[in-house]
Each structure stands twice: as C-alpha cells, then as structure tokens.
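Q: Given only this backbone (414 positions), what sequence would you predict?
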C-alpha cells in the first residue's frame, strides 16, 4: 500500500534492516564541534553551534520557513464551556488565523483546563492526527471540517467520508488521550489537528499554509516544518492565556507528530519540555543506523514531509551533515523525553535511545546530567532526569503508561 507516485519498483526493492548485525558502521557527527572543525568548549560557543545546527537541520532535513512568512497571528474565541467533565474543567476553542487575515488558513486550538486551581496550570500542547473531536466523545467539542486522511479502517467504520470526519468519529482516539487523568493532575491540555496547518498528502503544496506562498525551494518547508511552525503559532496564543503557566508548557507528538514536536521544540525555547513518542526516522532515531524505516524509504513514501534537499541523503546517510542526536541536543538545557515501544521496530527503538544518549555531552557542557547509561534500560523502566527515556512493552501507540511519565515530567518542572 503505497501512497505516492514514486515507481513501485523503488518501493518494492526496499528491505528494512531488522538485525543489529546488519546495521552499517557509522561515525556520528559531533554536536560539540563546529563545521570548521573547531571545538565547542563553552556555553557561549554552544549558543553559536546551536545556530549552526539549526541552520543545517533547516537546510538539509526539514526546510526553513520562507522569509516572507509572517508569524503574526490573530485569533477568535469561538467557544467557552464552563462546566466540562462534570464541572471539573473548562473547555475553550480558539481559532488561530495563520495568514494575517481571516480568510486564509487557520488552526482550531482546543484547550481543556482544570478548574479551581489557585495557580496557573502547566499545560501540554499536543498535535492530533484525527481532529479535536477524536480525543474525547463529548459533543461540546466541535467536529473538524478539515480534510482528513482516510485509513481503510476509518472508511469501513464510516468515521471519514469524502475526506471529512463524521459524527461517528467523535472520541475515536480516546485510548490515546486520558483527558480526565490529565485534568485530575492539575494540568491543562491544548491540542490541534495537524491537517489544519497542512493536509497530510503530497499535493505539491497547493493546500495548507504553503499554498499561500511561492512553491517551496529545495531548502524550504516540507509538511513537518509547516506543522512545527503551526505548533509555534499555537504556542503564541497559549503563552498569552492567563490561566496557563507559560514557563511550564510541554510539547508532545506521536510518530510523524513526534518528529514535528522535536523540530518545533528544537527551534522554540519557550517549550520547557519536549516529548517524542515513537517518532522514529526523521525524529529521534539515528538516520545513519538505517534500521527499520530509512531516509530513502521515508522520502519515497512521504515526499512532502521533509525538504527536497533531504533526498540527497537517500541511501547516503553518511553524507548528512547532522544526525538526530543533534536534534535532541538542540533542546538542551530544557527537559527532553524520548519514548520508544518494544514492538515498534520500524521506528528503531535502539536508535531512538542512542540519539538521547549521544545528546548527553551537550547537556553536560551546560552543567546537566546526561542519560545515566549507554545501553537501553529494561522495558517499562524510565530513566534519566534532564534527558529521559523509556521503552515500554507494546506497539506503536500512545498509552496510559506513556502519559503517566509525561505528566510526571511536566510536573517536575521547577
Ligand atoms: C508511518 C511512517 C512513520 C511514522 C508513522 C506515523 O507510516 O513510516 O515514519 O511517521 O507513519 O506517523 O504514524
């Protein structure tokens, strides 16, 4: 089942590596060495190296946001429900206009806040796959009218018809969203549908935010870069919300949205916590390992996700000027959480762990402890303080176990 126009033969030739002995030898680039070979010795050096790395990731992997794109947003509060979750919470829906006027692309931010708090609440900002209405069955949540991908199971169940969500789709993803547990922990939850910013299909950037601008150049934004930019615009609103503690906002994404969280969190230092849930290739997993999904494979299956320059590294990962441990290191000194799942071999759990581990020297330079061990921990045993990691039992998913760790991480922020 392939979704691109790329030749079938190129796809069918791909055989993923699933044995450690078949992982090629590789040398990782050193986050603490400038491109000219000079060492990074001080915090001031690191600030410069950080800029250099951000530019390299923008140019070679995700694509930069074009110069003409304005970050100015306007918003409109469309709904406020005072008695949500049996009166425990307040629900708000904020439409955030992304192109300066109200006729262009917008994202709908759903915010659920605990009530009766004496202080401002810490919050999660999370991107969702299937519309805000999918996270909880309440009819108070507006049904998304945006274009939706259709999986065969969604079609069978009538959740998506003609690429639009139906009433049946309400609460379809509740297993991934323990809303009551989050609220009971005194934490607010803000979420938006990623397809509001750019619909997730290869449309040559006709739709979504890129459609308002010139076609992206080879070093300009693919969809992940656009989704990450959208998360930053949602953050612009969230930090202005008087009920939210702007110093304690954690950004969370799963899978392709974990890749997105890492790229947004690397660039935007307002996120005090950045969480990658099963983000895999182009996320936390080291590209040079080629384990499971590879750069060639991801660029073939999803040609719109990364910038066109990234295709230079198809089957050519050793030439990449960066690797994904450096993406993790860009989050330093903030709290970063990388999570894997045992059965999610496509995402290379070991490669995800090693990225978190090899980001350690940057945290150490900034006076913070790296991961305490160079080998992955046992399943279901989270490790680390400033860089946290776990591998849980089970498959590619977001579970109660994952959320439990993320809530603890958010609440540990000083
Ligand atoms: C897969 C893709 C992964 C991951 C996943 C998801 O098909 O190969 O990189 O992003 O989708 O987002 O669910």
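A: Predicted residues:
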């Amino acid at each position: 089942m392939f979704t691109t126009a790329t030749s079938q033969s190129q796809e069918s030739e791909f055989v993923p590596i699933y044995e450690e002995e078949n992982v090629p030898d590789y040398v990782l680039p050193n986050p603490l060495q400038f491109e000219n070979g000079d060492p990074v010795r001080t915090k001031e050096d690191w600030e410069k190296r950080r800029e250099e790395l951000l530019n390299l990731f923008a140019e070679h992997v995700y694509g930069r946001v074009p110069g003409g794109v304005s970050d100015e947003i306007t918003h409109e509060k469309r709904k406020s429900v005072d008695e949500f979750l049996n009166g425990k919470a307040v629900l708000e829906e904020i439409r955030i206009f992304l192109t300066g006027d109200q006729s262009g692309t917008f994202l709908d931010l759903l915010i659920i806040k605990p009530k009766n708090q004496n202080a401002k609440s810490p919050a999660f900002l999370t991107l969702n796959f299937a519309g805000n209405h999918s996270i909880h069955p309440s009819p108070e949540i507006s049904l998304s009218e945006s274009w939706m991908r259709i999986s065969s199971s969604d079609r069978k169940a009538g959740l998506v018809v003609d690429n639009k969500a139906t009433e049946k789709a309400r609460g379809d993803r509740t297993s991934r969203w323990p809303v009551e547990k989050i609220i009971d922990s005194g934490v607010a939850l803000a979420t938006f549908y990623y397809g509001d910013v750019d619909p997730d299909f290869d449309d040559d950037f006709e739709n979504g935010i890129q459609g308002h601008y010139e076609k992206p150049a080879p070093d300009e934004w693919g969809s992940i870069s656009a989704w990450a930019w959208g998360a930053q615009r949602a953050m612009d609103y969230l930090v202005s919300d008087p009920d939210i503690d702007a110093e304690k906002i954690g950004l969370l994404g799963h899978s392709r949205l974990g890749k997105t969280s890492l790229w947004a969190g690397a660039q935007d230092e307002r996120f005090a916590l950045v969480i990658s849930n099963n983000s895999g290739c182009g996320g936390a997993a080291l590209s040079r390992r080629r384990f499971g999904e590879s750069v060639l494979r991801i660029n073939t299956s999803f040609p719109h996700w990364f910038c066109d320059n990234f295709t230079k590294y198809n089957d050519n990962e050793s030439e990449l000027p960066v690797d994904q441990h450096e993406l993790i290191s860009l989050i330093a000194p903030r709290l970063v959480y990388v999570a894997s799942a045992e059965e999610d071999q496509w995402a290379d759990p070991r490669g995800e762990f090693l990225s978190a581990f090899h980001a350690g020297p940057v945290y150490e330079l900034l006076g913070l402890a790296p991961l305490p061990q160079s080998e992955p921990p046992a399943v279901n045993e989270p490790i680390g303080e400033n860089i946290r990691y776990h591998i849980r039992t089970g498959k590619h998913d977001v579970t109660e176990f994952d959320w439990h760790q993320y809530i603890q991480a958010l609440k540990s922020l000083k």
